[in-house]
C-alpha cells in the first residue's frame, strides 16, 4: 500500500511550531514555555522524555503565566483547578461522554435551516451584529434572514452593484466552527469548477471575511425540502415528484462519489428546492460542512444528524460513501409518508427503531465499531455476539431516558409496502419504489445500493432519466467532459487547481484576510498547501 502524507500541518522542524502559534494570534507570552513543554513530551529518546509529575510542575502551568494569556481556558482558572479536573472518572461516565458527543455533534454544526423567521443576531462580542440593511463585504446589503443555527446565520443579500440576490452564510468566530468552515471552503473550491446545475449541487460564488467572521456566498435558492413538505402539511409527494427528487439526489451523490467525496449530512433541510412553483420539481444538495474525502475518514468520526446517520456512523466504524445512500433511503421514506422514519433524539433511540423494524446489523459490522459497547453487550447470546441493551440498562449507564417519537411504527420493513399502497400509486411503481428503498437501507454498507446503480434502477424507467436531466441547463457539451477521463488528467487538474489556482485566487481576492506582513502571507500560503494535502488522495 503506497504511503500518503495526510498531515494538516507540516513543519521543517519542531521549533517552527512557535511561528505557527503566532499565526493563530494567541499565547504570545507563553509560546516559548508551551513549545518547550511539547519538545520535552516528544523527545525521541524515551529516557529523556518528561514524566507526568514533571509536567505538573512545569512553568507552563504557573497560574501567573496562564492569567496573562487571553486565548486559553486557563485565563479564568488557576493551575490548581486545572489539575483537579484531571481526577479519574468511572468507565460508566466515559461511555456517557462518548454518547453525549455523538448526539450533540450534528447540532453544533447543523447549517442552513432556511426558515422564514427573523434571526436573533445576538452573539459573542467577536461576532458580527447583523440587521436588515447591514452591508457585508462592501456591496452585499442584508435584505432578510433565512435561518440561524449553532454555526451562525444565513442571510438573504442583494448585490448593490448588480442587484442580484444571493445567500450569504456568516460563520461565528469559534475555533471548531471556523475549522469546519475552512474544510468546507476546500471542498467547495474543489466543486466550484464543475457544472452545479448538472450535478444538482448548490452553486458557490465566493467567500470573504467580514470582521472576524468568514462569509460564504451561495446562489439564492427558494426553500429547503423540509420546509417544502411542511408547507404542504406533510402530505406525501406524488410519485412523479418523488422519482424526480431521488434521481437528482442520486445524480449528485454519483458525481461526488466519482471524486471520492462523502457528503455525510444528507437530510431534507440540506436539500434545497430551486423553485417551489417549477414543475417538475428541481432540487440541489447544500451544506458541505461535514463533507470529506472517503480516504481521510477515521473510525469514530461523528458526522451527520441524529435520525439520518447510518448505523456504521453511530457505532464509530469506518465509513464511506454508503452512508449517504442510507440517508437518501430515509429521505425517500419521508417523501412517501410525510414523516421521518427514525426520528430519535439520541443515537440509542435510532438504533432501537432500526432493530425493531429491520433487525440488528450483522456481527461483522458491530465488531468494527469503536462505540458498539455503548449500545450493545458482547454476550454471544442466541447465536449473536452482540445483544442490544435494554432501555433500563442504557438509562442506568447514561441517565438518558429513551422515548418513542415515531409517527410511523412498523413491525418489519416489508410492512412499508403495505403502507405505500394507500398512497394512490400504481402497483408496479409502488413495488419498484419499495425494492429501491430496501436496497438503500441495507444494514450492511457493503450490500447497500450505489448511486450509479440507483440511476439505472427500474423505478426510474421508462422516461424517468430524461424527465430529470431535461430540467438541468448545462454549460458543457457533455457532463462526462466535466470529469477528466484519464488518471493523468485528473492528477494534473488537482495539482493545478489546489497548488496554483486556489492560492492565487485566495491572495488576489481576500486581502482583508491577510492584512499582515509579507512573511505571514507566505505562512498562510504554506498553511493552504498543508490543508490541501489530505484532499490530494482523492
Automatic annotation (TrEMBL):
GO BP: intrinsic apoptotic signaling pathway in response to DNA damage by p53 class mediator; positive regulation of transcription by RNA polymerase II; smoothened signaling pathway
InterPro entries documented for this protein: Kinase-like_dom_sf (IPR011009), Prot_kinase_dom (IPR000719), Protein_kinase_ATP_BS (IPR017441), Ser/Thr_kinase_AS (IPR008271), Ser_Thr_dual-spec_kinase (IPR050494)
Transmembrane segments annotated in the record for this chain: 488-507
Binding residue positions for ATP: 173
Keywords: ATP-binding, Kinase, Membrane, Nucleotide-binding, Serine/threonine-protein kinase, Transferase, Transmembrane, Transmembrane helix
Coiled-coil region: none
Gene3D superfamilies registered for this protein in UniProt: Phosphorylase Kinase, domain 1 (3.30.200.20), Transferase(Phosphotransferase) domain 1 (1.10.510.10)
Any single Pfam family the record assigns to this protein: Pkinase
Entry GO MF terms: ATP binding; protein serine/threonine kinase activity; protein tyrosine kinase activity; SMAD binding; transcription coactivator activity; transcription corepressor activity
Protein known as: Protein kinase domain-containing protein
Amino acid at each position: 500500500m503506497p504511503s500518503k502524507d495526510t498531515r494538516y500541518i507540516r513543519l521543517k522542524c519542531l521549533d517552527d511550531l512557535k511561528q505557527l502559534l503566532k499565526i493563530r494570534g494567541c499565547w504570545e507570552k507563553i509560546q516559548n514555555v508551551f513549545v518547550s513543554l511539547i519538545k520535552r513530551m516528544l523527545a525521541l529518546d524515551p529516557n529523556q522524555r518528561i514524566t507526568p509529575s514533571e509536567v505538573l510542575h512545569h512553568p507552563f502551568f504557573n497560574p501567573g503565566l496562564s492569567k496573562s494569556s487571553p486565548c486559553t481556558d486557563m485565563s479564568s482558572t488557576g493551575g490548581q483547578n486545572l489539575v483537579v479536573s484531571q481526577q479519574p472518572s468511572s468507565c460508566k461516565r466515559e461511555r456517557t461522554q462518548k454518547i453525549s458527543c455523538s448526539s450533540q455533534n450534528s447540532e453544533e454544526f447543523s447549517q442552513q435551516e432556511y426558515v422564514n423567521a427573523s434571526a436573533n443576531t445576538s452573539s459573542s462580542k467577536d461576532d458580527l451584529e447583523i440587521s436588515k440593511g447591514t452591508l457585508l463585504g462592501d456591496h452585499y446589503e442584508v435584505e432578510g434572514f433565512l435561518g440561524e443555527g449553532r454555526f451562525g446565520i444565513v442571510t438573504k443579500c442583494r448585490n448593490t452593484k448588480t442587484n442580484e440576490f444571493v445567500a450569504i452564510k456568516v460563520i461565528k468566530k469559534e475555533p471548531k466552527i471556523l475549522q469546519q468552515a475552512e474544510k468546507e471552503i476546500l471542498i467547495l473550491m474543489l466543486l466550484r469548477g464543475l457544472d452545479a446545475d448538472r450535478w444538482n449541487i448548490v452553486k458557490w460564488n465566493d467567500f470573504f471575511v467580514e470582521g472576524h467572521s468568514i462569509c460564504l456566498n451561495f446562489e439564492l435558492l427558494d426553500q429547503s425540502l423540509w420546509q417544502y413538505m411542511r408547507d404542504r402539511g406533510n402530505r406525501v409527494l406524488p410519485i412523479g415528484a418523488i422519482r424526480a427528487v431521488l434521481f437528482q439526489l442520486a445524480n449528485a451523490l454519483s458525481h461526488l462519489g466519482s471524486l471520492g467525496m462523502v457528503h455525510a449530512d444528507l437530510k431534507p433541510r440540506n436539500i434545497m428546492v430551486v423553485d417551489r412553483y417549477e414543475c417538475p420539481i428541481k432540487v440541489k444538495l447544500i451544506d458541505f460542512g461535514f463533507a470529506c474525502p472517503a480516504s481521510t475518514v477515521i473510525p469514530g468520526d461523528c458526522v451527520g444528524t441524529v435520525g439520518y446517520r447510518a448505523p456504521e456512523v453511530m457505532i464509530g466504524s469506518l465509513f464511506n460513501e454508503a452512508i449517504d445512500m442510507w440517508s437518501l433511503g430515509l429521505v425517500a421514506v419521508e417523501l412517501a409518508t410525510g414523516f421521518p422514519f427514525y426520528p430519535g433524539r439520541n443515537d440509542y433511540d435510532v438504533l432501537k427503531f432500526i432493530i425493531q423494524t429491520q433487525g440488528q446489523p450483522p456481527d461483522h459490522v458491530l465488531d468494527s465499531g469503536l462505540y458498539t459497547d455503548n449500545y450493545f453487550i458482547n454476550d454471544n447470546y442466541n447465536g449473536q455476539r452482540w445483544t442490544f441493551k435494554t432501555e433500563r440498562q442504557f438509562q442506568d449507564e447514561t441517565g438518558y431516558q429513551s422515548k418513542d417519537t415515531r409517527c410511523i411504527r412498523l413491525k418489519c420493513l416489508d410492512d412499508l409496502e403495505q403502507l405505500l399502497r394507500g398512497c394512490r400509486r400504481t402497483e408496479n411503481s409502488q413495488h419498484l419504489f419499495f425494492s429501491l428503498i430496501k436496497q438503500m437501507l441495507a444494514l450492511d454498507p457493503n450490500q447497500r445500493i450505489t448511486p450509479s446503480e440507483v440511476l439505472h434502477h427500474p423505478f426510474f424507467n421508462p422516461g424517468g432519466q430524461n424527465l430529470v436531466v431535461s430540467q438541468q441547463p448545462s454549460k458543457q457539451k457533455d457532463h462526462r467532459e466535466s470529469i477528466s477521463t484519464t488518471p493523468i488528467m485528473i492528477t494534473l487538474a488537482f495539482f493545478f487547481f489546489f497548488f496554483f489556482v486556489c492560492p492565487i485566487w485566495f491572495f488576489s481576492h481576500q486581502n482583508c484576510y491577510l492584512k499582515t506582513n509579507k512573511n505571514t502571507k507566505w505562512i498562510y500560503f504554506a498553511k493552504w498547501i498543508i490543508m490541501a494535502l489530505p484532499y490530494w488522495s482523492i
